[in-house]
Amino acid sequence: MKPIYAAARIAGLGLTCVLLWSAGTAAAMAQTTAPPEAPATLNAIDFNFVGQANLGAPFQIDSGRLAETKATSAAIRGYAHLMVTTHIPVVDALNVILRKKNITPSNTLLHGAYDAMIFTLEADHRTAFDRNYVNGQVEYQKGNAALFEQEIQNGADPDLKEFARQTLPKIVDHLHRAEKLAADAGRLAAK
After folding, report:
1. Domains delineated in the chain
2. In this predicted model, what pLDDT tens digit does every residue of 109-129 receive, in sequence order?
3. Whether this model's pTM surpasses 0.85
4. Residue 78 dihedral angles phi and psi, to the nearest 5°
5. 20 to 30 A Cα–Cα from 178, which one of 41, 51, 67, 140?
6. Helix crossing, 44-70 with 126-154: angle to 10°?
């Protein structure tokens, strides 16, 4: 696969996730009540947040595990390891809240996009993998930060808002780390 095509594919997938997130958030904000499939205890913002956060953390673990073995640089492998180790407790904390409230999240909107991104990463090799993983992380973390900020500002469920408040600083840290990796990779490519 040509590197430009692979980069365009992963950028397109990243854009797809951002667009799906934006569409889900816009729809959630436009609704005064949660969708019919939402548990009665969640408003539309909370319902959107739960669906995306519930799938996003496992995606970070799965893509991180791939990068731990496929990345060519120690810095990217270290970042990937951080994604795996920090997202396991995030998944656990969210699951505690969901079990307590007897909520089963709906994440069908993003499931296909995340599966496609994992498939793309599995097919990538060496520097193409590094570039696509890091660039995908930058875009993912930007969207994830916006999702968590949206929940903090507009969510109604106090447990979910507190979960978002506690998790957002980690997401911001991950974004800064991913941006540094991307900048470092850009400097190396320019040499």
Report:
1. 3-190 (1.20.1260.10)
2. 566 777 778 788 877 788 888
3. no
4. -65, -45
5. 51
6. 160
